[in-house]
Amino acid sequence: MKQVLITCDTEVGELARDMDKAFDVFVQGAVAGERVGVPLINRVASQYGGVVTHFVDVYHPHYEREFSKLCETILADGHQIGLHTHPRSRFGKRYMFEYDADKQREIIAWGKEWLLRHVGLDVMVHRAGGYGANDAIYPALRASGIRMDSSFFFRASACHMGYPYINRIASCEDIVEFPVTVYREKRTLFGFKRKDLYRKLDFRYGSDVPTILDVIREAPDKTIFILFLHSFNFLRGCYDVRKEKFTGLSVHRPLIDAYHALLDGISQLEEVCFTDFAHVQVPKTCTEYLAEKETTVSVQEAITQRIRQRIWKKIPF
Fold first, then answer.
1. What is the pLDDT of residues 8-35, one digit of tens each?
2. Distance between alpha carbon 73 and the CA centroid of its chain, in Å?
3. Structure letter (DSSP) for residue 134
4. Which of 166, 260, 263 is nearest to 213 (CA)?
């Protein structure tokens, strides 16, 4: 049986951390009288028999009350919570790897104690914000009694972990590492080979529903997959780099349709089931599996993206 873990990085986000009502917009998805963030993500997952593990960034000092209530609601609705370390808002630096080993232990312990005090939860799984961890994360997690991690993302620029595999789940310094599932995208432009990319199973950022379903369908038995969402998954708009603000935020309805299509498609695959970190069955020896997909680079899309980012200084969100 193949198993699928639905994960969601539930956070205000680095670019929005100083924005008014950032929690309402980027966590709850409160736009145009709707709530297309955590409430919708959980409701749709439940509809198809899935459980979402929310990696919650509890470090923002302005939204402790809001995150406390949110965590209570997530658990009451039958979903799960992991610790998500975005330490800059409270400790000053963006990534975990920028802190020494002692400070990493302090940051992890602070987050675990916060969840225990505010929610009554003994959290057991962690993910570093931006995948920005190094190997010091393992003793820091172990010191706080957290036994599972999902920070490793193969070839991610901020990931400094020396984890020896790509997708294989294994124990590392007594912590079970669940790598962010990736596949290799082999790209061509005008018939010439371009640099391969490693895409996560994220239908908002870089992948799409048919490809994700193919990766799951073609994988060998007992493979475990990590699906990836953000709490702001169903928002669209732009970030103006010059003004340091978001503009034109609205509901991204095609992505909501894609979410339904993805979970519906997974639910209909044979010998595939949704699971969660409390019930996942990890084989004694997991095999390494890396799917490969071929694609042709869109010249128009590449040029448009470069104009937006380098000339207009606007990043599609």
1. 999 998 877 667 899 999 999 999 999 9
2. 20
3. B
4. 263
